[in-house]
Design a protein that fits this description.
alpha/beta; Ribonucleotide Reductase Protein R1, domain 1; 10 helices; OB fold (Dihydrolipoamide Acetyltransferase, E2P); five-stranded mixed β-barrel
Length: 339
């Protein structure tokens, strides 16, 4: 029996060594664009190759570092290297993965049209769940009447400690202080940019990367055999491209992704929702009951801190009534999960 165990152990070690040597022989690269099951992988030397996953289901997303194997004039994704994080949403039907290995998520809003605070909260909760820094940017600061009102609606988020920045994209880039401040906040980081329709996301991407549209067109044509179709998600280098893709913080990159209109949070457990909302989280430890829902229980720390008068400016020690209504709505939604 001992000899049998030794032979089994030897075979296992040999198999592991074979897998490791095979992995070492593979090429590594960074996924910089996706469309359906296909993706574009960038190598250290700047060249790019179209790859597809081995098997039926694609596991890689933009921002992933992958091991791939050459196959004719394309490549096959063999494995995805360990991720620092993955920003995604999930509804009752499917999961939508945006990007991986992010330093921050930039949520672009506009003074007009009026932004949805529920939509903003959903994106922030998804970022908190993955421990990704959110950056909230309010565009159209030149609108004298609409901007102050929109800025006031973000008071609760500034009190939570989120970075909230004004932006005016219509101003010339060479004298645009708000754009320069934003670029400084993004320097040396990989940032996913999200924004609802009308917020100015395409304008921002093109301001940061002037040739972004042309690059998207080239990738789309390559992925679709000459048919010009917008890729689902794309990564662009801002300024100088890093010489090595393996080192963290070696360059500034933005990731442009659609799909902000609907943002399901079915991957967030109902009892962990409050911990993903910093303004509520700080009072959870004061609740009388360990399983408090923060909706109706006596001795609830969150309800005790709830803003008394919504018509009066929010105090630093208060929880916004609007935010608590959003929490209640999401809590009910997450309690109706169907699996």
């Amino acid at each position: 029996m001992r000899k049998l165990n030794q032979r089994t152990h030897t075979k296992t070690k040999a198999a592991q060594a074979l897998v490791e040597s095979t992995q070492e022989a593979l090429n590594t690269g960074l996924v910089v664009a996706t469309h359906g099951r296909h993706c574009v992988v960038e190598l250290d030397n700047g060249s790019r190759i179209i790859c597809h996953p081995r098997g039926k289901k694609s596991q890689s997303v933009v921002g992933d570092r992958v091991r791939w194997q050459a196959a004719a004039d394309e490549g096959t994704i063999e494995s995805v290297l360990e991720r620092r994080n993955l920003f995604y949403r999930r509804d009752e039907v499917r999961t939508k993965s945006f990007a991986a290995n992010l330093d921050q998520v930039l949520i672009l809003l506009a003074a007009e049209p009026e932004f949805s605070e529920t939509q903003l909260s959903r994106a922030l909760i998804a970022a908190e769940a993955e421990h990704i820094k959110p950056l909230v940017v309010l565009n159209k600061s030149d609108l004298n009447s609409a901007f102050p009102q929109a800025w006031a609606r973000l008071a609760a988020y500034r009190q939570m400690g989120y970075t909230v920045m004004p932006l005016q994209l219509k101003q010339a880039h060479d004298v645009n202080d708000s754009l320069r401040m934003l670029q400084a906040e993004m320097a040396g980081k990989t940032t996913l940019i999200l924004g609802p329709s009308g917020a100015g996301k395409s304008t921002l991407v093109n301001a940061l990367v002037p040739n972004a549209r042309a690059l998207t067109g080239e990738i789309s044509q390559a992925l679709n055999s000459g048919k010009h179709t917008t890729t689902s998600t794309s990564l662009y280098w801002v300024g100088t491209r890093p010489s090595s893709l393996a080192s963290e913080g070696a360059g500034t990159a933005i990731i442009d992704s659609p799909g902000f209109q609907e943002f399901g949070l079915q991957h967030i457990p109902q009892n962990q929702l409050a911990s993903c909302m910093p303004d509520l989280k700080q009072y959870v430890g004061s609740c009388k009951f360990y399983n408090c829902t923060h909706l109706h229980e006596p001795g609830c720390g969150v309800l005790t801190a709830l803003q008394k008068d919504e018509n009066v400016a929010l105090q630093p020690s208060e929880v916004s009534q609007r935010r608590h209504r959003i929490y209640a709505q999401l809590f009910e939604e997450l309690g109706q999960q169907r699996w």
